[in-house]
Amino acid sequence: MKKQLIILAATAFSGSVLAQAPAPDANTLMNSGRFDEAKQLLLQNAQQNPSMQTYFNAGYGYLRAGQPDSARVWFEKGIATDEKRVPLNEAGVAITYLVQNPTSAEARIEEVVKKSKGKNPDILFRIGEAYTGYLTPDSGSIKPRYPKAVNAAKAIDYLNRAMERAKKNEGIKADVQLALGDAYYLNREAGTAVTRYENAIEQGMDRSRVYQRIGDIYWQGRNLNLAVENYKKAIEANPNYAPAYNQLAELYFLVKRYKDASNYIDQYVKVAGDVRPEALLRQAQFHFLANDFQRAVNLIDSNRVSLGQNPILYRIQGWAYSSLKEPQKAIENLNTFIEKAPNKVMYDDYKYLGRAYLAKEGFANDSLKAQNDSVGVAYLVKAAPSDTTENLYSEIARYYYRTKQHVEAVAALDSAAKHGFKADVQDLFRYGMSNYTLGFQRDTAGRLVRDTVRFAMADSALALAQQGSPDYAPTVLYRAKANYYAYPPEEAVQNGKARPYFEQFINMVAEKEEERNRYKKDLALAFKYLISYNELVTKDENARNEWLRRGRELLPGNQDLAKIATAEATDTEEQ
C-alpha cells in the first residue's frame, strides 16, 4: 500500500562550490563520521606527545569508530600515565568492556568512580556517554553504535552528576548537554532531548552537530519538514558537515524524492571523502532510482576498485543498461549477478532481464529472434506474480498479441485483472482483438463455428477501450465486426447490433483518404450491411439508397456495390 507522504517544502541544496574550511581537528573528523582520518591524527599525537589525555584520545577514537578491542589497547597503554585521582584511561578500559558485555563491566566502573571519589566530571561524563551507546546516524535512522550498553537511566544519572561537578570545568558542559539529549531521546522524552541539544548550543557546541541531532529527533517523530529544516541549518552552520548531507539523502530516499536523494548523497561523498564500498554503492543506487541510469553506470565503473566484487554491482548495472536500451550489456551483467549470487535473486532481476531479451535486435533470421523473445517473455512470466507496482502482465500480453498467440494474450490480461491491475486502453484493445480472433473457431470437420461468448467479450473490452480513446477508428470497426460475426449473416442484419458501429466507423474515415484506402474491404462490408439493414428491417428506401450512393462515391471500384446498383437499375427498367 502506498502511504500518503508528507510534502517537503524545502528544495534540494544545489551549491556546487563548498566553503573552504581549515583542516579539521580529530574531534571534528569523528563527529563527521571520518573515523579513519581522526584515528590517524590521534595516534600520531599519542606517539609524539604521550600523556594521559593523548592516550585516552587515541583509545576514544577507536571506541567511537566501533573498535573497542583496539581502543582497549591504547587505554591500557595510558593507565600508567593516569593521575592518582583521575583514572581516565582506566575508565576507558572499563567502558570498552561495558559496550561489549555490560554485566562484566559494572565492577570496573564502580572501581573507577571510587578511585576518582565520584568527583571528576570528565570521568562521570565519559561513563554517562557510554551508557547512551553513542548515537550515530545510520542510513537515515539514528541508532546507538553499541546497543548492549544502552541504559538511559544510568546515562542520565552519570551525566547529571558530571554537570554538577563541571562548574569549574566549562569545557565539557556542551558535551554533557549533547549526551543528555541523547539519553533523554533513548528514554523516549523527545521534547526534553531537544531542549538539552539547544542547551548544548548555548554552551558553545558545534551548531552543525546539534542541528543534525535535532533533525534526527524530528525524523524519528515523523515530522519530516522540521527534520529537513534542521539538517539544512546544520549545513548552513558548516557546509562541510557531512552527516547532514547523508541524512538528507536518506530522508529524501524515504519519501521517494530520488533526484533530491541522489543530489545530497553526491554532496555527502564529496564533503566526507567517503570511499567506503557501502557509501559508493548507495550513491549508485540513488542515481539509478532517480532514473539517471548513465550516472549510475559511470559511478560503478569509476569506483570499481573501491567497490570490489560485490555482486549487487552487476545487478544495478544490469537494471541500468536495460533502461538505457543496451540489452546485451544488461543481459551480461544480470546473468553474472545471478551466477554470483543465486540466493539474492529477486523478481526485479527477472523483469529487467526479460525486458533486455525482448529489446535485443540484430538477429540473423526471424527464427533466432523468436527464440530470444521467448526467453525474454519467460523471465517476465517469472517476475509478474511478485511485482505489485508494474503491470508486467501487460508487457507479456503485448508480446503474445504481437506473435498472434491470442489464448496466451487473453490469459495474461486475465492474470493482470486478478492481481489488481487496471487495464489501460491498449490492454483493453488487445483483449478485445484477441477474443475477436478467437471467436472464429473450427470444428473437427474444419467448418467455421462462431464463438458468441468470445465475440461478446471482444465487444465489452472494445467498448471500454472506446471510452478511453473515442477517436480510434479500429476500435469502432471491430465492435461492429464482433457484433456482426457473432451471428449468421441474416440474423446479424436482422438484430441490428452492428448497425451503430458501422455507421460511426464510416463517418470516422469517410473524409480521410489514407484510411479509406486502408479499410476498403471493411468499408464495403459496412455499406453492404447498412444497405441490407434498411432494405430488410427498417424498409426505409431513402436510407437504403443514401447508403448505396455514399458507398459508390467512396468506393467507386467496388464490384459488390456496383452489382447492387446495377440490379436496382435493372429492376427499375423492368418496371
From TrEMBL:
Residues 1-19 form the signal peptide. Gene3D superfamilies: Tetratricopeptide repeat domain. Keywords: Signal, TPR repeat. The keyword Signal applies. InterPro entries: TPR-like_helical_dom_sf, TPR_rpt. TPR repeats lie at residues 208-241. This is TPR repeat-containing protein.
